[in-house]
Amino acid sequence: MPEHIALENIESTLIGLIETLRNSQEGFKELGHRLHNNGQAKHLFLEETQRRAAYAAELENELHRMGVHDVKAGATPGGKARLLWGKVQASMAGGQKSLLSAAVEGDEAATKTYAQALRNELPLPLREMLDRQFAHIQRAHDEVRALHDLGRREA
Question: Cys-Cys link to 32, which of 46, 68, 81, 144 (CB 3.0-4.6 A)?
């Protein structure tokens, strides 16, 4: 396979992940501000806002290192995450339960986007970076699901 095709594939993969991370960041930020009566959830979402921003910056730096100077998100797998995080805004009137349901659904999209990205052929340092990020995102997703399930039991 020609090198330029492999680089285009890596670029597309990273841009999709960046878009997903940015959308997760926005969704978690909104959730952190909207959850007034749940300090644990509020803390988790605001912490994840910072983590997702840092991960997106790491991937942008990797693209810059590869010679991609204008990183723009487009019609990528992250578009699905954008649509799901849009449900966060739509569920604002539904209270904490609706917000946590939207968070679970949105974060499931993020884990799927990472899993799909890791199926691609990637240079080892990049694969290690994505593995590390993905492991954290899976743990955060488990925490979000646990908060959701706890809220469901308390309802």
Answer: 46
The C-alpha angle 116, 82, 106, rounded to 5 degrees, equals 70
pTM of the model: 0.83
Closest CA to 140 of 13, 38, 50, 79: 50
Let me know how long the chain is.
Answer: 155
DSSP, res 2: -
Distance from C-alpha of 45 to C-alpha of 43, rounded to nearest angstrom: 6
38-47 tens-digit pLDDT: 788 888 999 9
* Phi, psi for 33 (deg, rounded to 5): -80, -25
